[in-house]
């Protein structure tokens, strides 16, 4: 099975970041994991690699509630970027919120691949990585 | 049997019915009436001979209806009589047009009156009583309005609770949950130590959020205790002294423009509001620009407004308006902030029936407006 090249975890929760990274390493399905603790950092990372599609993330796991730039603001800014044709970036919202209003908000962004409510178990992570999980 | 249409019976019948009536001609002159009309309105027959009688206190309300000369029925009016008593009347009106006369008939009965055993009417309400009742209604309306604002605030606060639970409690809790699954797989000591360290951080975050939530709820429960008259200038100067090290370090200047000198409030809350707003103003400053901080107060309708204005880095409200007062939200990198102070201020202010707003422009400065609702005391009295 081929590995996912670049995965970005955008979440200010250090424990979540650590747990996800550990799972990734154990599953051995990811080449590189990039850690960002707010939306702005992640956005800057993407902007600086727009010329180099190989380095752009293939999968982004995005928290909603973050300082400086939250998940929704990130999505708004992301929609304005011109991602190189042929590059497919899957973005999943990963949130602890079960509120209908958040789910509703997610529907405003067609570029989202899915909305997942934490906690995320090992099996869910595997599905995310092999791309079988479609919401 | 021959029915007597002549006038022989008519005066007796007119006085025997319960309704009072007046008939007026084209010139608004009263041309007929019955005894019940006089009884209901507490009038003497003499007054009806006066052409100006329609303008008397006891007749005005009827005159107003009659002047339209239209047919209507069942209109209810409150009538103030000549002797300062009040009564509710149900009134009908009808134009009378025959080949002989052209006029207007107005009939009325009392719809609420007290009748004692001897059959005499007693006025159902005096002017004084009505005045008191109106004052009471007015007072209740104010309380109702204040209560409705208070409820709206409470709903907002509950939504905020809900959001804090969804993000700030469920967040670290789900991370802890996720780490339990991982724990059994982690063998290396360094990884285990790191995992435990992060788990402890999450548990601490949950506890601190729970403490803040408890503080919010405590505030709701004990919110009316200890409202005193607070002298603004004294309090601002105290806060400024507390911040002396930063004031000196940044060469900050303070101006006061206090049209309202005192605010009735819980002293520690007002201190807390002033401290946090001034502290923010002196923290988020622009490099190379001496901080100029102005504290103003003024009366605006029924509210007292307190403004804390600075010439600091400002906030991009287009980006952050929604989150500015939210729990644990941060906007500026490189500053020590937990993102709690504005949240707590708004919660305190709203709990006591006020509100807080901000106007700001990135790179120019910010103005925070705190609205103190001085009507909160009526709520207290009624609860």
Automatic annotation (TrEMBL), chain A:
Keyword Phosphoprotein included in the entry's annotation: yes
InterPro entries: CheY-like_superfamily, Sig_transdc_resp-reg_receiver, TCS_response_regulator
Superkingdom of origin organism: Bacteria
Alphabetized UniProt keyword annotations: Phosphoprotein
4-aspartylphosphate modification, residue list: 63
Coiled-coil intervals: none
Claim: Protein transport is one of the keywords in the record: no
One Pfam match: Response_reg
Gene3D superfamilies, per the entry: 3.40.50.2300
Domain Response regulatory, first and last residues per copy: 6-133
PROSITE patterns: RESPONSE_REGULATORY
Full protein name: Response regulator
Organism this protein belongs to: Chitinophaga rhizophila
TrEMBL record, chain B:
SMART domains per the UniProt record, alphabetical: HATPase_c
Superkingdom, taxonomy of origin: Bacteria
GO molecular function: kinase activity
Keywords for this protein: Kinase, Membrane, Phosphoprotein, Transferase
UniProt enzyme class: transferase
Catalytic activity: ATP + protein L-histidine = ADP + protein N-phospho-L-histidine
SUPFAM superfamilies reported for this sequence: ATPase domain of HSP90 chaperone/DNA topoisomerase II/histidine kinase, Homodimeric domain of signal transducing histidine kinase, PYP-like sensor domain (PAS domain)
One Pfam family linked to the record: HATPase_c
EC number annotated for this UniProt entry: 2.7.13.3
Domain Histidine kinase: 164-376
Protein name (record): histidine kinase
Taxonomic source organism: Chitinophaga rhizophila
